[in-house]
Design brief:
There is one protein chain. The chain is mainly α and about 375 residues long. It has two domains: about 230 residues, Transcription Elongation Factor S-II, Chain A (Up-down Bundle); about 120 residues, no CATH class. Helices cover about 50% and strands about 5% of the residues. It has a five-stranded antiparallel β-sheet. Helix 3 crosses helix 6. It binds iron/sulfur cluster. Iron/sulfur cluster (SF4) binds next to helix 11, helix 15 and helix 16.
Amino acid sequence: MAIRGTPTLIHYARHPYLPGAEDLLGPAGSPSIRDLVVSPVYEEVRRRARESLEHALGSPAVPRSVSETDDSDPTTAFLAFQYSQLLLSVPSIPPALFRRWCLSIAKSAWGTLVNSTDTSDARFPAGELAFVAGSLGISLEETADGGVRISVPSYIHMAAQIRESPYRLIRQRLDGEGNVLVLRRRAARLLQEAIRLYLLSLPRITLQPAVTKLFEQEEGEFLEELARRTPAGGDTAPGVFNPAFLPPCILEMKAVMERGENLSHFGRFTLAAFLHRLGASTDYMVECYRGAPDFDEEVTRYQLEHITSHDDGKGYTPPECATIVTNGLCFKERDPTRMCLDPELKRPMSYYVRRGKLGRSERAPGATGPVEAGDLPRHDKVD
Ligand code: SF4
């Protein structure tokens, strides 16, 4: 027997982004934008919207607590969602913040959906998973035995961007009728992805110049703060970077993830810090991590942004050879140039520079070829 996902007010308060939430406003519909921006009646709406954007800016990959997301009435929650969208549409706001906000909302939704899998908690009536899924056009049923049934096309849609191997279709249990059978926690993770994709598909609102001016007058300080603090996203053009000159340690770190194996936290940090110093684009770095067993693109982008925005965009200093040796990630014996055997070589960065001088047309084993050849960025110091 399937449990129906009946809409309830508490569901909409927790998931005000869902299609259908606008019906909560009744026949009067939405207030005017001017009222939303200036009327004292909507002060709580504005406060919640600012809070939501602050969270997206600070910790988008961390779910907000349930009390933070369902403490308001559903109408306020829906208007705050709309107000956030309007703020994100002001031309001075970088598009990267919209992506972070989508991730933040999806992660917080995951937090409540995971809690809803605890059927003994009275705050979470059965059917929340099915309700959210149904609103997004996902074919998903909660079953009376505590499981979840998802049609294969819906499963593929939700799991397409999830690289963790337990989510691969080939590893799922099928019911023989075109459905995948999963546990409720896994269904919550899949729905997180469906929510993120849905939010990303929302069209950006084009504000009239007068409306932009109104926002700049009333929210100017907050908007400036958002624009200033939003890290540069992965949309920037690649810098000068030639993967043909990467040292054996960095090549192995890349290869570990390409093989779908786990790389230590130290290895992941070293790889990102090193590639950023070389001017690799965020997109290139994301691709390096794509094979990781726990790969999540938005989380990866968020973590890379943290590393690359450090120290006004210079990023963290990549570890020296001695530290890499201590962590078991030095593979100097694989170096065809034998430069790694030179006791004067202290840093992988120095290897890259020397290798570049040795011959820019040469290719290191395992390298995929130059992305863009050129000189090193001015930040790099060499031995
Ligand atoms: S010697 Fe340094 S650059 Fe060469 S593989 Fe080891 S850690 Fe990397």
